[in-house]
Amino acid sequence: MPWSGSNFTRTDGTRTGSDVWTQAKGAGVKIVAADQDTHDQDLADGIKKALRHDGGNAATADISMGTYRHTDVGNGSARTDYAALGQLQDGTANWVDGGGTADAITATYSPAITTVVDGQLCFVRATAANATTTPTFAPNGLTARTIVKNGGVALVAGDIVGDGHQLILRYDLANTRWELLNPAAMVPPTASDTVAGMVELATTAETTTGTDATRAVTPDGLHDMTSLAGAAWFLDEDDMASDSATKVASQQSVKAYVDAAVNAAGLPAPDFTSSEQTVTNDTILDVAHGLGAKPTLVRVTLRCKTTDLGFAVDEEVLAENLPTQGVDRGATMYRDATNVTLVQGSGISLHSQSSFNTTLITNARWRWVVEAWA
Prior knowledge:
The protein is of the alpha+beta class. It contains six helices and 21 strands.
C-alpha cells in the first residue's frame, strides 16, 4: 500500500483475478514485476517525505514533537537557530564585555546584531567611567547612538561608574537613542519648587535660623524649637530698641514695653519730666522741655517733700486742682515750643485732707514737677 503519511505497509502481492499471478503462484514464483514496481515506488515516496538526519532536506510544514524534546542540542550560533536551555541560563546571547572607549562604547555580540529594534535590550560591561554627558553605544559596528537616562535626560559624568559597571541599555527607536536603565546609584534629581526629586532635611538649628532655602523642615524640627533666641525673624527686646518693621516681638517683650510706657493713670510715659523745682512766691519759672515743638499735653504737680496739711511725703496735687484765694495767689501755667512756664503769685493754698478750708502751704515743704508729652 502507498505511504499514508504516518506509516508504511509492504505490498504483499495478494492480487487476485489475474491469470499471470495465478500461473506464477502455481509455479512457485513469489515476486511479480508489476507488483514490485508498485512496492518500490511506495518506498521511494515514503523516503522522500522523511526528514534526513544529516540535514539534507527541510520541513515543508510545522512539525509536532508530541510533547517530546530535542535532546543533546548544541548552542545556537545564528539568529535563526534554536537556543539551548543552558545557553539561555548563561545569559550570554545579549551580553558581552564592552570595547571602544569611555564615551564611545562598542560591543561584539554573537550571533551578531544586524539591526536594532524598538525596546531591544543589550547588556554590556563598561571599561571606564563616562567623562562627557553624551557617551554613545554601537553594537556590532552599527551606528553609534547617544546614551541617556530617565526618559531622555542627559547623563552626568560618572553615571557610568567605571570599569566593571554592568550596563543595561534599552533602545528607543523613535528617538534613536539608548536608555541607560541603571545609572550610578539611581540618584534622583535635587528637588526644587519646580522639580520633584531628592530633598535634604533641615536640622533644628537650621529650622530655628530660618534662612535656608533648600532644606525641608520636619514636624520634629518645628517641635524642637523650644528657644527662639537668635532666630533671624524674632526679637525679644523689652525696650523695642531695634524698631524693626520685619521681625516679630515676643509676648513678654511687648508686655514689658507697654508696662514701662504706660503709667498707673493709663497715660503713656511722658516724653519729658523735669527735676523737682523750688516753690517760690511771686516768681516766673521757665522749665525747658527740649521737645522742639509745643507739647500736646502738660501736667504740673506739687509734690510733698515734708508732711504738710495732712499730706504725706511724695503725695502729689495736680496744679489745676489748686484753689484760688485772693487775687494775687495761686499759679498760672502755659507752654510754648521751648518752655513750660509757671507764674506763681504771693502764695499757694490747698484744701487740707481733713478740712474743707484752704490754707497756705509751706513752700519749703513742696516742689513743682513738670511733665510734657510731644
